[in-house]
Amino acid sequence: xDKKITLxxxxxxxxxxxxxxxxxxxxxxxxxxARNAEELSELxxxxxxxxxxxxxxxxxxxxxxxxxxxxxxxxxxxxxxxSVINNAGIGIFKPADELAASDxxxxxEVNVKGSFLLSKAALPAMKKAGAGHIVGVxxxxxxxxxxxxxxxxxxxxxxxxxxxxxxREVRKLGIKVSVIYPGLVDTYFHxxxxxxxxxxxxxxxxxxxxxxxxxxxxxPHVVVDELMLHPMIQEW
Length: 236
Prior knowledge:
alpha/beta; Rossmann fold; 6 helices
């Protein structure tokens, strides 16, 4: 197997889909993780028709059982994991006193716990190999805040802290940890479908895919710790 074995969470649409498509062109065997089985199946077909290799795994990234079973299956079939792209994420935006406890639980489960679970599941194999690359797709709001964003920004600050601490733990073991911090991206994450006129200047999912490919393709002696991207129209 000369292809790199790469796991991508939140792969069914938007940024995750763009990352999967880009890496499949770069000789990665992409493992597609998301909840929507139909969208994953469509993406798997598109990648395979284009000459790439992929497998889809419809799972809830916040379920420890499902994540562990999926990673165990991949390791049984392929024997290693080269890269993990933690991309799955959701957002709920309300004034703090209008947030329900269930809102808090779900956003933290997907954005923070999901990143933890998938990284944790892959780490033993990476440690054994003395190599591997864990990438987090976080957000520029990992380092700033905004009104009605208390829940989402808290989850992204937590992601940032998790990956930064993890980098300090595993760097000496030959494992890289990189984090991408995108600004505004034209995806379904915002109000309605992509392509709306008022989002003309936003980043595109392919821009984030390019950033992920860039950090993965760094020479073995180089780790890109952090990479922040903004559209020119966005004030930082």
